[in-house]
Design brief:
elongated, 70% helix, 2 domains, Arc Repressor Mutant, subunit A, Rna Polymerase Sigma Factor, Chain: A, mainly alpha
C-alpha cells in the first residue's frame, strides 16, 4: 500500500524541484491511487461499460490515470488545500475518464446523423418529458410544453442558419463533445463558441417574437 502523505508532502514530492528519485516514487504512488479510483468508477458506476472484460477496464484505467497524472502535475499550482490532495487529484482523473469515454463514444459520429427530418422535435420532446412523463404532468402543462416544442422547433428551422442549427442541435440536444463538432465543421472551439452564442441569441429573439421568455421556457420544462 502506498504511504500516507499530507497535502504538503504530496506537493513537495511531486514538485519539479524535488529530488528525482523521490519525485518518481510519488508519481508512481499517485498513478496507482488514481488507477484504482478510475477502475472503480469504470467497473461499478458505469453500467454502459458492463460489456467490457475486466482486462479492458484495467487497460482503460491505466490509460486514463496516466493522462490524469500528467494533468495533475501540470496543475499543481492550482491546488488550494481545500480538500485532501488525493481527493482533488481524483476529481481530475474522473474528468479525464468522462472526457475520454465521451470522445470514444463519438469517434465515428457524423453530423449527418442529426439532419433527419423531425429529429429536433423528438429531442425537444424528450427533454420536455413529453414522451416519458405524461402521467406525471398536469394536462394544461403538457399542452403548453407541446406548444413550446413546436415554437422552438420552428426557431431551429427558420431562425438559424444550417450551420448554427447543426452545431446547436449536436451540442445542446445530443451532447456531442465540442471538439468533435468543431472538427467536423472545420473550425476551432473559439469560433464554435461564437457560432453557438449567435444561435442562442437568434433563438431567444424568436421566442420573444412569440411573447415567450427563456425563464418561462425553463420554468415550464421544470414544472411537474
Amino acid at each position: 500500500m502506498a504511504p500516507t502523505r499530507t497535502n504538503e508532502e504530496w506537493l513537495t514530492e511531486l514538485a519539479e524541484t524535488a529530488p528525482q528519485d523521490i519525485r518518481d516514487v510519488a508519481i508512481e504512488d499517485l498513478r496507482d491511487r488514481l488507477q484504482r479510483g478510475v477502475y472503480f468508477y469504470l467497473s461499478r458506476e458505469r453500467s454502459d461499460l458492463a460489456r467490457y472484460a475486466t482486462e479492458d477496464l484495467i487497460q482503460m484505467s491505466q490509460d486514463f490515470s496516466q493522462d490524469a497524472v500528467l494533468r495533475v502535475l501540470a496543475n499543481l499550482h492550482t491546488f488550494r488545500g481545500d480538500s485532501k490532495f488525493t481527493t482533488w487529484a481524483m476529481k481530475i482523473a474522473a474528468r479525464v475518464a468522462v472526457s475520454e469515454l465521451r470522445r470514444a463514444r463519438y469517434k465515428d459520429f457524423s453530423l449527418e446523423d442529426i439532419t433527419a427530418d423531425g429529429e429536433i422535435a423528438v429531442r425537444l420532446s424528450e427533454f420536455a418529458g413529453i414522451n416519458t412523463s405524461t402521467d406525471q404532468i398536469a394536462p394544461e402543462k403538457m399542452t403548453e410544453r407541446h406548444d413550446l416544442v413546436r415554437i422552438i422547433t420552428e426557431g431551429f428551422e427558420q431562425a438559424l442558419t444550417e450551420r448554427q442549427r447543426i452545431a446547436l442541435e449536436a451540442i445542446s440536444l445530443k451532447g456531442v463533445p465540442m471538439d468533435t463538432v468543431a472538427e467536423q465543421l472545420g473550425t476551432n472551439r473559439n469560433a464554435l463558441y461564437k457560432l453557438l452564442h449567435d444561435a442562442r441569441k437568434k433563438l431567444k429573439a424568436h421566442l420573444e417574437q412569440e411573447d415567450l421568455s427563456m425563464d418561462y421556457v425553463m420554468n415550464l420544462f421544470a414544472a411537474k
